[in-house]
Amino acid sequence: MKKPNMILSIRLFLYVFLSLAIVSECVQGPQFWGSLGFPSCDGDLQSPINIDTEEIPKYEYNDLFNFKHYDDVASRITVTNNGHTLMATFDYQPSKNRPSISGGQLGGTFEFEQLHFHWGAQIEKKYSGAEHTIDGVRAPLEMHMVHRNVKYNTMDQAVNHTDGILVLAALFEMNTNNVMPLLQSVDIVHKMVEPFMGNATLKPRPLSSVLPEDTTAFFRYRGSLTTPGCQESVEWVVFEHRAHVIVGQLNMLSKLRRPDQKLISHNFRPTQSVNARKIYHMVYKHPGQVTAESASAGLRSPLLAVYGAVAAVVLVCNSRL
Ligand SMILES: [Zn+2]
Predict the structure, then answer these.
(1) Edge-to-edge strand ranges of the sheet holding 137-138
(2) Which of 41, 189, 255, 260 could, after both became Cys, cross-link 34 (CB 3.0–4.6 A)?
C-alpha cells in the first residue's frame, strides 16, 4: 500500500517543482530567457523589432493575401485571461470554415488559431504597450492574430519549423469614438476575465471585424515568437494602418491579473536587434501600375531560405506568442 503513495508523492513533488520552474521561467525578465533554457531567445531572428521607416524602401506589389472565411460569423468567441495576456479563440460551424490566409507569396495556407494582445501601463496619461515600435514610437496596444501553416497539424509542430507560423499584427491608436469591436462590452468582459483563467463569451462576429480598415499596406519580415521558447518560425506582417481602441478598453486590459494575483501591468518584450534581416514595406498597386522595385524578386529568396535548425526546446509558453 505504501508504494503507490510514494509514487504519488514523487509525482506530486515533480508536478509542483515543474510548475514552479515553468512559472518562474516565464515571468523572469526577457533578458534572461536565453540562459533559462530557451536558447532560441538569443538568436539572430528575434521579435519584436523597431521598424525604421526611413531605412526601408517601399515595395509595390499586386498579389494580395487571399483571406478565406474571414467574413464568416464565428459561432462562438471566447476570451480568456491566461495570466499573461487576453486571448480570444473563435469557433466555427462547420469547423472546416475556419478562416485562413494564402497567396501574397506566403508559400502555403495558414489557418487562424487565436488572437491576443500586448499592452503596457499608463505613464503620465500615456499608454505604451505594443511590441513592435515604428520609428522608435510604441503604440498603446498591439494585437497578434496567430496562424498555423496547415501542413503542420498542431501549433507545437508548427513552431519548430521555419515556415510554421504567420502572425498578423495590428497596432492601435487611441480614439474617443471608435471602440475595438471585439471588446465592445467592456464591463462584462472585465468582470469575467479579471481573475487568472477567467473567461467570457463574446457576441459572435466575423474575424474581419477586428482587422484595421486597410490591410493592403504592411511591414513584413522573418522573426520569432516573442515569448519563450522564442522559436524563429514566424512570418510577421505588421499592418501600417492602425486599428482603434478607447481608453476604457485599455483600462480593462491593465486590470487583468497574473496567477499570483498581481496585475499584468505590461506584457511586451523589448525590441530585438534586426541584424542582417531585410524588412519589407509592402504597398499595394493595382495590376499594371507597379512601377517601383518589384516585391517578388526581393521577397522570394528570404521567404524560401532555410534558416538554421530551431532548437527543440520545451514548449511551455507557446500559446502566448
Ligand atoms: Zn503576441
Answers:
(1) 50-51, 133-134, 137-138
(2) 41
Distance 89 CA to ligand 1 centre (A): 14
Q: pTM to 2 decimals?
A: 0.83
CATH architecture of structural domain 37-320: Roll (3.10)
Taking 60 as the threshold, does the pLDDT of residue 112 lie above it? Answer: yes
Q: Separation of 140 CA from ligand 1 center, angstroms?
A: 14
Gap between the terminal Cα atoms of the chain: 45
Between the CA of 167 and the centroid of ligand 1 the distance, in Å, is 8
Candidate from 177-186, 218-227, 276-285, 309-318 with smallest mean pLDDT: 309-318
| Separation of CA 301 and ligand 1 centre (Å) | 26
Q: Give the pLDDT confidence score for residue 102 in this predicted structure.
A: 97
Residue 189 Cα to ligand 1 midpoint, Å, equals 20
Domain positions in the chain are: 37-320
